[in-house]
Design a protein that fits this description.
The chain has a six-stranded parallel sheet, sandwiched between helices. A hairpin with a 4-residue loop joins β6 and β7. It is built from 14 helices and eight strands. The two termini are 33 Å apart. The chain has two domains: 169 residues, Rossmann fold, CATH 3.40.50; 187 residues, Up-down Bundle (Dehydroquinate synthase-like, alpha domain), CATH 1.20.1090.10. It is α/β, with parallel strands linked by helices and 383 residues long. α9 packs antiparallel against α10 and α9 crosses α13.
Length: 383
């Protein structure tokens, strides 16, 4: 027996932002990152549509690329001051993830990050506000998931907060918001969406509901990411990537992720490697590792008329190259000395990450370490 959880309402398609006019409430806090949603008009349009709905709004801005617990607590204090009954996360993954965590602290001010990072530790939400997610990047699927990743910068560690209570109430998947996304962000987020589809498809609790969404998302990414990367104003490709991100999010929020994410969380928190890039570097070798216990990578290879897990790993590598993403961790300028000093800690933290629980193959410490080392060098593993 299983269950399938998604937002109560999902509005998707070009121009779907206008569905904000149908919301109910009195006051919204809109959480954003930097100036991109101001510059491209998304923030103004959001404010205007909320006004048409009879909802006043204020803005909390300045969420950084990897939202920190300090930013989250500042946002929660702002929420307490403003007392919204609607919370809107607008922008990239960071803004929406931060807004989710702020929401938790708004409803439960005494929370600690360490407590929230325990699997499914978030208590019942929505006593003060409901949540609306409006992504302007096509990758994380955070608009559809019960996941928020927050960084403790003092410890250099990313903490995933995992709970269906964090699943947004309303998601708006409008590809028009993505047209101003730079090429490197298109690449990083698109490869992140791919990793979500792949890891959901091979999850050790996967089922046919989530398999169909995950595989559909994988196909959309391979078909549309190169076009979105090279033709940023191609609205059809943008919407297809936005849909892929959402579909992969629907899959993985129900069957979760694996060690690609367990490992990527650590190199992102420690070295600042963009999450999608970290996932793209790790994915081929994790596929090789996991293929010893599942034939699902062979299913994915069949999408390309091929038959082996190695074939699929090579398709990922080819796509990564097409969109300008490097093939090794050391290409980010991380010295051998720095890498060696951190490797055991990275491995230990990856083993503890909640995503490891859902990997199809249960890894040992030395196996995670070996995958890390191969990905640092840009070489293949063979277990």
């Amino acid at each position: 027996m299983a269950k399938f959880i998604v937002p109560k309402e999902i509005f998707h398609g070009l121009g779907s932002l206008e569905n904000l006019k149908e919301l109910k409430g009195k006051k919204a806090v809109i959480v954003i990152g930097g100036n991109s949603v101001r510059a491209n008009g998304s923030l103004k349009r959001t404010e205007d549509f909320l006004k048409e709905a009879g909802i006043s709004s204020v803005v909390f801005s300045g969420v950084e690329a990897d939202p920190s617990i300090d930013t989250v607590k500042r946002g929660a204090d702002f929420f307490t001051q403003e007392q919204p009954d609607v919370i809107v996360g607008l922008g990239g993954c960071s803004a929406i993830d931060a807004a989710k965590a702020m929401w938790v602290y708004y409803e439960y001010p005494e929370s600690t990050l360490e407590e929230l990072a325990a699997p499914f530790a978030v208590k019942k939400m929505r006593s003060k506000a409901y949540f609306v997610a409006i992504p302007s990047t096509s990758g994380t699927g955070t608009e559809i998931t019960g996941l928020s990743v927050i960084t403790d910068k003092e410890k250099g560690t990313k903490y995933p907060i995992v709970s269906h209570e964090l699943t947004p109430d309303v998601s708006i998947v409008d590809g028009e918001l993505c047209e101003s996304m730079p090429a490197h962000v298109t690449a990083n987020t698109g490869l992140d969406a791919l990793s979500h589809g792949v890891e959901a498809y091979v999850s050790n609790i996967a089922d046919r509901y989530n398999d169909s969404l995950a595989k559909g998302a994988i196909e959309l990414v391979f078909e549309n990411l190169p076009t979105a990367y090279t033709e940023p104003n191609n609205k059809e490709a943008r919407q297809a990537m936005h849909d892929a991100s959402c579909m992969a999010g629907m899959a993985f929020t129900n069957v979760w992720l694996g060690i690609v994410h367990s490992m990527s969380h650590q190199i992102g928190g420690t070295f600042g490697i963009p999450h999608g890039c970290g996932n793209a570097i790790l994915m081929p070798n994790v596929a090789r590792f996991n293929s010893k216990v599942t034939d699902k990578y062979e299913d994915l290879a069949a999408l390309f008329g091929k038959s082996t897990a190695e074939d699929f790993a090579q398709e990922i590598e080819a796509l990564r190259l097409k969109v300008g993403v490097v093939g090794s961790i050391k290409e980010y300028g991380i010295s051998q000395e720095e890498w060696d000093a951190k490797l055991d800690t990275l491995t230990e933290n990856a083993m503890k990450d909640p995503c490891t629980l859902f990997n199809p193959r249960k890894p040992k410490f030395e196996e995670i370490k070996a995958i890390y080392q191969a990905c640092y060098e840009g070489t293949k593993i063979d277990f």
